[in-house]
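Action item from last meeting closed. Structure (172 res):
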């Protein structure tokens, strides 16, 4: 002969009864309300104690978080191994290996014939060589051309005057 827990039996009966017409109200809230209204003394005491404990717990957590927002983070970091970096960067205490050597590629300075005018707009221009693009304005300095002295847009393109040459752009 087995003796069932009367509280579990009561909560089970109320849960079954509450599931039929609970609607949008959570089953736990309906069951707790019914236990408080219709339950025996032990059931009422248990549900009321759980309710008070929950409210007290969340009140304490909110109060601590308002007083010191970093309290819980500090507690977690204090439990970490001291060799761990608290900043989340993935850094470790190991030294990284030296950088792999790569050959330095040196290009010769371009000549004025190496430049091509790509576009001219509002006092600025874009010039190109086979290897690079340059965004320039009056006063800019380029290797092989020197300082840009004038940028003149025209209907069919434009011209760029430098210390070493005059570059033209024909529209097309």
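Sequence:
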């Amino acid at each position: 002969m087995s003796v069932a827990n009367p509280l579990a039996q009561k909560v089970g009966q109320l849960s079954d009864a509450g599931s039929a017409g609970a609607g949008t109200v959570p089953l736990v809230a309906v069951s707790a309300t019914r236990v408080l209204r219709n339950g025996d003394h032990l059931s009422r005491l248990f549900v009321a104690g759980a309710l008070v404990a929950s409210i007290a717990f969340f009140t304490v957590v909110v109060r601590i978080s308002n007083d010191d927002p970093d309290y819980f983070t500090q507690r977690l970091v204090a439990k970490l191994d001291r060799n761990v970096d608290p900043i989340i960067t993935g850094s470790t205490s190991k030294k990284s290996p030296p950088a792999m050597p790569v050959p330095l590629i040196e290009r010769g300075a371009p000549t004025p014939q190496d430049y091509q005018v790509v576009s001219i707009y509002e006092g600025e221009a874009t010039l190109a060589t086979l290897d690079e693009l340059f965004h320039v304005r009056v006063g800019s300095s380029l290797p092989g051309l020197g300082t840009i002295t004038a940028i003149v847009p025209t209907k069919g393109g434009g011209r760029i005057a430098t210390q070493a040459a005059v570059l033209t752009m024909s529209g097309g």
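Note appended to the action item: The radius of gyration is 40 Å.
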